Amino acid sequence: MDDSQLLRYSRHILLDEIGIEGQQRLLEARALVIGAGGLGSPAAMYLASGGVGTLTLVDNDTVDLTNLQRQIAHNMARVGQPKAESARATLAAINPTIAIEALVERADDARLAELVSRADVVLDCTDNFATRHAVNRACVAHGVPLVSGAVIRFDGQVSVFDTRGGAQRGAHLPCYSCLFPQDQPFEDVACSTMGVFAPLVGVVGAMQAAEALKLLMGIGEPLAGRLLLLDGLRMEWTSIAIGRNDACPVCAAQSSTGPD
Prior knowledge:
With 260 residues, the chain is of the alpha/beta class. It contains twelve helices and eight strands. It has an eight-stranded mixed beta sheet with strand order 3-2-1-4-5-6-7-8, sandwiched between helices. Helix 4 runs parallel beside helix 5 (83-94) and helix 6 crosses helix 7 (129-142). The two termini are 33 Å apart. The model has no long low-confidence stretch (mean pLDDT 92).
């Protein structure tokens, strides 16, 4: 790090758990953020401000007026623009020293496999089960930790799914499909019909960023094996332990063989 970086990240460096070594790991890291909306906005902004060296944003949607109630990476001047490009402009203004890639596309399984294989951590900031399961499959296959978040109405949830290490470490840890089996008919609930309390996406998105930064630096205890549920009306957190499904078609075999 040069003098400017030492000053920029000095409040991180002052933390014994991070120090210069931890900050250097962030600068060398690659994070993949799927979704540049309500969750992706705060998550990506904190990753950028925190000094993650390379950020890739994936979103095929455009900025709409109704997004501005909660999607803080965008503004009035960017209505109609691709969200990925709008978010990239915001992140570059926060931290012009990092590399930011904006992909305006809906990534299929093959594309997700390519993108995930290049990442050190993946943040799922999407709003539908099909994409969440596709991202999870790619993360399990390539041994990349996944930080997942969701918010609807006044309720939020966040967890980490990290099956790295095979039987030595990750055999007992679940993947996303262990919690929400991909062959079960879960119904997508859109905030366009159910509504969403704006600050909650900021809370959950910031927590996703915090978990991702911890994973990248190798500090603290990640949320793997735990699901945090937030009742925003009562402002009450509930922590639920989640275990691996030994019959999970996504991670059961992978946990014993390890990633490719």
